Amino acid sequence: MEEAPPIVHGQRGDEDGDSGIGDIDSSSESDSTSVRSNTKDYVEENGRLYHADWIDGKYLLPNDEREQRRLNSQHDFLFDGNSLHKAPLQGLLNVLDVGTGTGRWAMAFADAYPDAEVTAVDISPNLMPIWPPTNCKFLVDDAEHFGGIGNKEYNYIHVRLLHGFRNPARFFRHAWEALLPGGYIEIAEFELPLKFHDQEKARDSALMTWSANVIEGASRLGIDLTIAEKISTLLKDRGFEGIEESISAWPIGAWPKKNERKELGVRLQEYWMETLTAFAWRPLREMDWHNEETQCLLAKMRTEICGKNIRASMHVRTFWARKP
Ligand SMILES: C[S@@+](CC[C@H](N)C(=O)[O-])C[C@H]1O[C@@H](n2cnc3c(N)ncnc32)[C@H](O)[C@@H]1O
């Protein structure tokens, strides 16, 4: 079996990538060599940087500048022009944005509601902005542990495309505890598997292969990428009331017949390529795919996304509910 390239652990800011890198760790479960630093701020693989816990599969996507660009374009493409919230919010707000990423939503909300206090948390500090609005503060924390965040009470908890629930029931319990009575939670997630308009035609497609294997690989890492279909039940089981849902469908490629949708599909081509690539590496590694196999799949996906034969869509499902 061909050996995968080394995984380099380092600390952001090491310009030559040299300082801080310590001993070779041969205990890694993979067939690759792992070079660990004392600080373990990030890992590098296939030219991308990831949160240090990537190796354990805690969060799958990168956290480098390229990912920052993807998250910002995602905010522009998928959410700009839409309201910042679907939950019916009233009064002065203490707001928590969980898994804030580059913080585009949190900052836009803080600007739109100057009387609100927005707390934005993420496990990755390096995605966070340098100059947030004064009523918006950024904290490094793990949503599934909640730590000090649980000590404060919020009117509104917002979670958009976290893609990383390992123990969703625990997360919803913490969210419940952190909400004031009458407070709202709102959560948006991709719906996986991908939707195909002609399942039979798509059966051997790269997009179908991506969908099945990424879900299975993530699941082996303890991450449920099919969470969207379970959110409503999780909210209900936790005791939330007035659960509502909206679904938006995004074409992956230029296949739609209607002009408006086709233009959207074309505009989103690059975004989907970036997004599906960002998701692919860690789960496919868990499925014992060689890097070359992953590269090959990504190349085939590019052809499908640029062509019109495979009519695939991503649904974004948004739920909101009230704590009684
Ligand atoms: C795809 S990004 C979405 C960012 C942002 N919500 C948006 O819509 O632009 C997901 C973010 O969730 C963060 N994340 C994943 N698991 C997390 C956890 N357990 N606790 C806190 N943040 C987490 C990741 O670091 C990443 O920045």
From TrEMBL:
Keywords: Methyltransferase, Transferase. One of its GO terms (molecular function) is methyltransferase activity. Signal peptide: none annotated. The keyword Metal-binding does not apply. It comes from the Eukaryota. The keyword RNA-binding does not apply. Pfam families: Methyltransf_23 (PF13489). Residues 1-40 are annotated as: Disordered. Residues 21-32 have a biased composition (Low complexity). One of its GO terms (biological process) is methylation. This is S-adenosyl-L-methionine-dependent methyltransferase. It comes from Lojkania enalia.
